[in-house]
Amino acid sequence: MIGRWLLRIGRILLILLVLIGAGGAFWFYRASRQPFPLTQGEIPLPGLRAPVTVIRDRWGVPHIYASNLHDLFMAQGFVHAQDRFWQMEFWRHIGTGRLSEMLGATTLNQDRFIRTLGWPRAAQRDLEALGSEERGILEAYAAGVNAYLEQNRDRLPLEFTLFRLFGRRWEIEPWRPLHTVAWAKVMAWDLGGNWEDELLNARIVQRIGPERLAEIVLPYPADRPVIVPTAVVETPFPEETARALLDLGRDLRRMALGSAPDRGSNNWVVAGWRSITGKPILANDPHLDIQMPSIWYEVALHCEPVAPECPIRVAGASFPGVPGVIIGHNDRIAWGVTNLGPDVQDLYMERANPENPLQVEFQGKWEPVRVITEEIRVAGQAEPVRLTVRLTRHGPVINDVVEALTRTQTLYAFRWTALEPSGIVRALLRLNRARNWEEFHEALRDWDVPGQNFVYADVDGHIGYQATGRVPIRAKGNGLVPAPGWSGEYEWIGYVPYEAMPRRLDPPEGFIVTANNAVVDPSYPYFLAAVWDYGDRAQRITDLLQAKDRLSIDDVAAIQNDTFSLAAQAITPYVLNLSFEDPTVRRAQEILQAWDFRTAPDQAGPAIFETFLKHLLHETWVDELGEEILKDLLTGGSHNRYWARWALAQPELPWWDDLRTPQRETRDDIVRRAFERAVAELRARLGEDPRAWIWGKVHTASFTHGTLGQSGIGPIEAIFNRGPYPAPGTSGAVNNVGFNIQKGFAVRSLPSLRFIASTASWSDSRFIHTTGQSGLPYHPHYDDFIPMWLKGEYHPMLWSREEVERNVEGILRLQP
Question: Bigger pLDDT: 250 or 180?
C-alpha cells in the first residue's frame, strides 16, 4: 500500500544520517526524545473548569482524577494525545478516508473505497443524532486533544518529523468529535463483515457446484458448546442465487483492511460459588491484528468525588481517540467482549435503466439514483481527485471502486448496518456508568455495530451474558450471495428486536463462555449468522472451568494462557497409525508420539503438526479447487482444523482421491504424502534434526509500526518495530496466536490484551496488552509490556488512590 514511498524515504534518511555523522545522531536523539510527555509537575490546560490530577503508575498507566465530567474526559483526550498522537492522527485519516493526504497516491484506492461506502458520511449522521450530554463529552475530549496540539506543535512525535523532512506535509487540523465517531466505523468494518466469505463461496460454487460447497462450509458441530443453548441457529439457506456470484470475488477481497484469519476473542465469567474468592471472576482477551503500538491504551478515570453529576469511576482498555473505557470495570460491575459475528452486510445486484443510467429498477418501476461528489486531496497533487458516488435504496454502488465490476452492466450496491444511524457512542458512555444488570442491559440497547458478545459480573454476585448488534431480518434468503435488488424479494424488512437477542443471567452451571462459537441453537427464531468459529476454544475453556470445583484468579490466568491444541489431539493419531521408511520421517513421527499437544515455542511437536496440517489440506483440496481458491481458503483458521477432523473420520470420502492421478488415492495415501512433504519442508528450512524444528523458530511475533515500520530499511524499521520473538500458542488454542499458513507461521493475530476482573476486590484484577502504553519509540513504556505478554504475565490493575500513589511514576497537575 505505502511500501514504495516508505522505501524511498528510508533510503534517503539512511544516507542522510551516514553523511552528517555525529551531528545527525544528535539531531535524531533530540527529535526522538523531545516528544516524550511531561508527566511530572504542573501545566495549564485552558478550558478546564477545575484542577485535574493525572497520576501515572510504574507501568505508565494514567489514573485521572477530576471533579466534573467535562474535565475528566478533557484530561483523557490530553493524555491519549501525549502518548499516542501519531496513532490517533493515522487512525482518523483511515476512518475519514483521507490517508492520501498523508501518504500520497499509493493509498488513493483505499480512500476511494472508504469514501464510496461512506464511513465519514455515516459518522456525521451518528454524531448529529447524539444527545447533548454525549456530544458534550466528545467535545470535551476533543478539547483535550487540541490543548495538547497547541502546546506541542514544535515537539510532535518522531513520525511527523521524518515525514516532513522528506516533503510530506499536511495540515494537522484540530481534533473533532467526528474523528472519534469515524473510528467506530473502522472497528465495525474489521469485526462486522462476512462479504469476503460470500465471495469466496461464489468462486467455490463456480468451480465445483453448490452441492460440493456444502461439503466445505460445514454446520456447527453438535458436540461443541452453544452460548445460549435454549435457542438459535440459522434457517435453511436458499439456492436461488447460488450461481449469480460472477468473478468479482478476488477484486473485492483486495479492499479488505488487513483482516487476519484468527481474529476473534475469548471471554468468560465464573459465578461466586465456583470461585475461591466467593465472588464472580471475569476474563477477556480480544484477538486482533498484531501491530505497533498496541491498539489498546490502559486508563483509569475517577470522578472525585463520585456524585450524580459526575458518576464515573472506571478502569480498563480504551482506544486512543475515543473517550471512556471499552473493556474493564467500574466500582460495581465488570464486562468483557468478543465478536458475535452476525451477518450484517449484503451485496445487491441493481438493474440500471438502459436509457437513463441514473435510474435503477425496483418492483417494475424506475427509481432515481442519488449522486454525490467526494473530493480526495492527495499529497503531491495540486488538485483534488473527484469521486462520483451513486446511492441506491440498498446503499452505495461499488462498481467504480472495484476493478472487475467496471466491466459489467450490473451494478452492485453494498448494504451494511454500520452505514445506518448508530448509537454506539451513547452505549459506551452509558456502559461505563452502569451499576447493575438492568442498567447494563439497557446501556447495550444502542450497541448496534459491531455485534458483540458481552459477559457481565457484579459485586452483588450476579453473572450474565448479552448479545448485541443490529441484525437484519431478510424477507428472503440469508445473505450468502448477492441478491437481485430489482425484485423486492430480498429486502431487509426489519431487525432482530433487542429484547429477542440472546441473553442469560445467573445460569445454573455457574459460568458463561464465549469464544466466537455458536450463540444459539436451531430453535432460535431469527437468523444471526451462517458460520461460527467451530468451537475448539469454547470447548477447551469449558473443560478447564469444569476441571475444578472452585477457581482462583491464578487458575483463570492459566486458562487464558493455555496453549493446548484440541485439533492436534484429534488429528495426530492418523499420522501415528502409519509406518514410514525414511528415518527422518520416523523421528518426526516419534516427536509427535511424545508430544503433549501444547504449543510452547520450545517444542518441535507444534511445528511438525502445523506443517503437516497445511500439506494435508493442500493435498486434499488442490486437485478440485485449484491454487487460486486455496490462497483464500487455506488460511489456518478454525474452519480448516474442523474440516480436517471431519474429513479424516471418513476414510471413504471422495475428497481423498487425487483427480490429477490415474489411480484412486485413499485417506492414508494422502496423510502419508502430506506428512512426508511436511518433513521435507521442515528439513529444508530448519535442518536435518527434527528435534531442532522448534515452534518458536517459525512461529514468531513481530510488532510492526503501521507506516515507517514497513520501509524495508533495517535501521529505520529498528527504530519503530520490535521482534521477531518466539511466540506461544496457535490457531484454535485458547491462547489463540494465529497466522496465515500461505505465508508461513509468522503471527498475524493474537490476544491483544488479557484482562481478569475480581469483583471480590478490584485491586486483585489483572491486565496486560501487547506492547506498552507509549507510542513513542525509545520511551521506556514503548515496549515494556512485550516480555510480560509473551510469558503470560500481567500487571495489577491498581484501583484505590492509595495503591496508585504507592506505585507512582509521575504526578501531573493540570490547571485551568
Answer: 180
Q: With CA atoms as reference, report the closest residue to 513 among 478, 569, 474, 556.
A: 556
High-pLDDT (> 90) share of the chain, %:
79
**Global confidence as pTM:** 0.93
pLDDT for the residue 245? 36
In a domain, 648, yes or no: yes
Residue 727, in any domain of the structure: no
Cβ atoms within 10 A of the Cβ of 213, count? 17
Q: How confident is the model at residue 10 (pLDDT cuts 50, 70, 90)?
A: low
- Residues 6 or more apart whose CB falls under 8 angstroms from that of 328 comprise 314, 315, 316, 317, 334, 335, 755, 757
Domain that holds residue 677: 566-598+604-693
Q: Which CA distances in Å does 88 have to 93, 95, 662? A: 9, 10, 59
632 part of a folded domain:
yes
Please work out, in degrees rounded to the nearest 5, the angle formed at the alpha carbon of residue 91 by the alpha carbons of 90 and 92.
95
Q: Mean pLDDT over residues 519-529, rounded?
A: 91
- 137 vs 213, more confident: 137
What average pLDDT does the chain have? 91
Please report whether residue 618 resides in a domain.
yes
Find where cell 460495581 sits: 332
CB 328 within 8 A of CB 315: yes
Residue 1 has pLDDT above 60, yes or no: no
DSSP-derived pairing of the beta strands 483-484 and 345-350 = parallel
Q: How far apart are the first and last CA of the chain?
A: 44
Helix (H, G, I), strand (E, B) or coil at 670: helix
Q: How many domains does the chain have?
A: 1
Burial of 31 (0-12, 13-18, 19+ CB in 10 A): middle
